Structure formats: C-alpha cells, structure tokens
Amino acid sequence: MADGRAVERLDENGRPIVAIQGNQLDAVAHEVERRVAAHQNVVGQEVAAIVAQLNDHGAQLAQLGGLHQQMHEVRQLLEGMAVQVVANANANANANANANANANA
C-alpha cells in the first residue's frame, strides 16, 4: 500500500476488502457521492411517478364519488316519480270508478 495502490483482501465471508491510501480516499468519496446522488435521483423520479399515479387515482375516486352521488339523486327522483305515477293511477282508477258508478246510477 505504500505505493498508493489499493490492496485487496477477503473478509471472513469471502467478500473483498479494499484498503485505500489517503490520496485515493477523496476520489473514492467523490465516486460514492456521485453514485448516491444518481441513485437518489432515480428513486426521486420513481417516487414522483408513484405520487402522480396516486393523484390520478385520487381524481378518479373523486369522480366516482360524484357519479355515485348523482346516481343516488337520480334514484331518489325516480322513486319520487314512481310514487307520483302510482298516485295518479289510483286517482284515475277512483275517478273511473266514480264515473262508472254515476253512469250506472
């Protein structure tokens, strides 16, 4: 190691250990920083894509919620119309029965 070169040896698990002399340490530190920054950039992009998807899904859920509310309102209108149709049919039946009774009287 006296000549500034890295010396490689293996740890107890057989993985390489590299001892580095001082002047190489800065270069290694810069490379580590560069790799970490690149990895953070990739992770940041992936997180941004996931957040965008979640925002899209949130918007879709909001639309579905609005549609559900509209469907509920339409159902209420239809139920009200059905009640009115039955009431009108009953009123017509009563009017017809009265007219027939008066005609037969």
Give a topology summary.
Layout: E1 7-10, E2 16-19, H1 22-104
Antiparallel strand pairs: 1-2
Cα gyration radius (Å)? 40 Å
> Regions with pLDDT < 50 over 5+ consecutive residues?
none
Please give the order of strands in the largest beta sheet.
Answer: 1-2
Beta-strand proportion:
5-15%
| Total number of helices | 1
The major pleated sheet works out as: 2 strands, antiparallel
Estimated helix fraction: over 70%
Q: How far is the first residue's CA from the last residue's CA?
A: 127 Å
Instruction: Please trace the helix and strand order, writing H or E for each element.
Output: EEH
Net shape: rod-shaped
Q: What structural category do the secondary elements indicate?
A: mainly alpha
The number of E-state strands comes to 2
Q: Could you tell me the mean pLDDT?
A: 87
How would you explain this protein's 3D organization?
The structure is a single chain. The chain has 1 helix and 2 strands; from the N terminus they run ββα. The chain has a two-stranded antiparallel sheet with strand order 1-2. The longest helix has 83 residues, at 22-104. The protein has one helix at 22-104, and strands spanning 7-10, 16-19. Strand 1 (7-10) and strand 2 (16-19) form a beta hairpin. With 105 residues, the chain is mainly α. 79% of the residues lie in helices and 8% in strands. The mean pLDDT is 87.
Q: Can you summarize this structure?
A:
The protein has one helix at 22-104; strands spanning 7-10, 16-19.
Keywords:
1 helix, mainly alpha, two-stranded antiparallel ribbon, 79% helix, single chain
